[in-house]
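I wish you would study the pair of lines that follows with an eye to the fold:

===
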Amino acid sequence: MENTLIRDKLTNILKSIFIAIKRFITSPTLIYTIRRILSGLFTLTLILAVVTALIRLIPDIKLYDVRLYSKLAGTSVTAAENYKIVQLFKYGRVDLDGNRIPVIRNILQYIYNALPIPKSIPIRWDTRYTVVLKYWEGFSYLGTSMDTNKLVNEMLAERIGVSFRISISSVFFAYLIGYPFGIAMAKKPGGIIDRLGTVFIVLNYAIPALVFFLLMNKILGNPSGIFGALNLGYFYIAGDWRSLIAPVFSIVFLSVPGIIIWVRRFMVDQLTSDYVKFARSKGLTENRIMYVHVLRNAFVPLIRNVPAAFIFAIIGSYYVEVIWGIPGTGNLLISAIRATTPDVPVIQGLTLIYSAMSMIAFLLGDIVTVWFDPRIRLTHKGDI
């Protein structure tokens, strides 16, 4: 009898585990996530193929020192051609015999390098490029900078800290200011606060971002100006948090109008919905309707944007980092493109990283939205 009870109890536990696993495997959220991941991988592969193909359109003459080539050609044509072949070999244009490498081979090679599987890749040769001196060993290889000889992921890791602090601080203060302002404008459309907010938004959008950043750098950093006592400075100083005030303020000032417009529009629309009319018919006060019911619904899209804001913070801000001399990630990709000799591995690696982060951000935003709003369900068709 006792053995039978134990067996039945064990059977019920196994059934419960089996049912839980079955529900998880067949859940719309898991199916939706898998479909999004697979489509994201396909998109990343397509992006890599397009970027690699576009890079191959760069003329060969842009990938080596023409003056050095001409100087070598004046003494030895063979030496000049060997120099040219070696330089193009670094970029995957030709093999060491000078034969052109098809672009499809470049694409497949980079996809293989980026795959998260164990591999060993040669990254350093002798002067004649006949003997490999060093191999990179690991899983996903995103390339080594032609300029600094550093791995792309190491370059990103070195610069990510300051960009992350600036961007996260900017997002936090932008929402902290924008949401209450938008709510105040929506509470009394056409009122004084609404009109003042509209003037602020119009003036804000009328100022070009680059012009505003330059003005703030001159005004806030001027030691003899009205903000001189704060000692903000014209440039970023590592370890001095005050040097980040000006760039963070500039980003927040230009980001707030977009948040205000969105919050105001959303809440004004919600105030005319059926559930608000029903709440008014029950005798609820306007403040309770606004701050309990309408505001709760307004937070759902905010939560959805949090993962995107968090991940995109890694990318940084190009204009801000250049103007304030901040060694962040904002100018990594632009500098690699604008260099006299394009830093192809950095361009490819950062494009892959930024594209992957974008897809992860949108996927996390959808999943977080479902967690915070039980009315929303993910379907196998990929809809929310």
About this structure: The radius of gyration is 28 Å.
